Amino acid sequence: xxxxxxxxxxxxxxxxxxxxxxxxxxxxxxxxxxxxxxxxxxxxxxxxxxxxxxxxxxxxxxxxxxxxxxxxxxxx
Amino acid sequence: xxxxxxxxxxxxxxxxxxxxxxxxxxxxxxxxxxxxxxxxxxxxxxxxxxxxxxxxxxxxxxxxxxxxxxxxxxxxxxxxxxxxxxxxxxxxxxxxxxxxxxxxxxxxxxxxxxxxxxxxxxxxxxxxxxxxxx
Lengths: 76, 134
Known about the structure:
- Chain B: Belongs to the cytochrome c oxidase subunit 5A family.
- The complex is a heterodimer.
- By secondary structure, chain A is mainly alpha-helical.
- Chain A has 2 helices and no strands.
- Chain A has helices spanning about 10-50, 55-65.
- The radius of gyration of chain A is 30 Å and the shape is rod-shaped.
- Helices cover about 50% and strands about 0% of the residues of chain B.
């Protein structure tokens, strides 16, 4: 029972034509997933934190904790 | 000699499989598969081919996006015979098996087609010699 002649040309080209668009699409999906799953929530968290941030109050807390060299705590 | 363009599929040639040595923007004559095969059979049929030309030819051929036709391999094996190079003959068989990649039906077909040549020239396959196992 003799074997039929298989396809022997262009095998890599065929494989790449199939897989590369998929690989490209999946890479874009991965990048989009990371952007909207990680970086955007992170940026939003920072934005939310600093929206209600009272710089003067926090400065005075830090000053009284004694962490600055340029200003001494109030009352010294 | 033009080398294989892996990406033969673009807007003009996506559905049909274009021959090996073709670029879709060139005005050069496109070489058919038969012309390609004939050219390589002729290359290895040179009576006074030397060892360098055999190796160069095989390396170039293996670089293409195809598994060589049995008639090309037959011509190459006969060149090995003229050069008394059994090692290269067996290496050629190993190379085409590797070129087939995941397509496991190609190598058995090639061995089937080359069987008369292998017997005539007394070439053992890597499987006969147990060289296909690690």
